[in-house]
């Protein structure tokens, strides 16, 4: 899987790019398209920001299975992974925490079940919002402009990069997802 980007504190504050050498957490996340090529975005009503579906990989779980589980939990939809986009590393020096996120493209299935949010996700006010890819990119840019929280900024920039990567992927595949 190819490297998409390595994010560091320098992406927000300028200065020297410093990298941590040990992964603290592995995660899977990405783009979920519906049949009309709308993207599932998670709106966090508490702060007005948007993110993509995804989260940590559990023990004995594959990267793809983790993404599909996160899709079910956060959107309620079953899905099929179509392709992989690459991975992004977040080197959070202040927290001494490095996360590697494996990024995928998936297609939503017809089956919808109950959303199963963690207490923290409920507190943040997670709600699914479907929108065209270009609108998703605007939502990510706007989220970055209004957020001033250290960890959240990493998440928002990471997800913006994933949306941009998905746009490139969609052009390469000529909107042909099966």
Residue share in β-strands: 35-45%
Question: Under the CATH scheme, which class?
Answer: Alpha Beta
**How do the strands of the widest beta sheet line up side by side?**
1-6-7-2-5
- From the N-terminal CA to the C-terminal CA, the straight-line distance is 21 Å
Oligomer: single chain
Helicity range: 25-40%
Mean pLDDT: 93
The major β-sheet equals:
5 strands, mixed
Name the shape in a single word: globular
**What is the H/E order?**
EHEEEEHEEHEHH
Low-confidence stretches: none
CATH architecture: Alpha-Beta Complex
Question: How does this model look, in words?
Answer:
By secondary structure, the protein is α/β, with parallel strands linked by helices. The protein has a single domain (3-110, 118-173), classed as Nucleoside Triphosphate Pyrophosphohydrolase, CATH 3.90.79.10. 34% of the residues lie in helices and 38% in strands. It has five helices and eight strands; from the N terminus they run βαββββαββαβαα. The strands form two sheets. A five-stranded mixed beta sheet has the order 1-6-7-2-5, with helices on both faces. A three-stranded antiparallel beta sheet has the order 4-3-8. The protein is globular and about 45 Å long. The two termini are 21 Å apart.
Task: Based on the model shown, name its key terms.
Nucleoside Triphosphate Pyrophosphohydrolase, alpha/beta, 178 residues, 5-stranded mixed sheet, 8 strands
Structure at a glance:
This protein is an alpha/beta fold and 178 residues long.
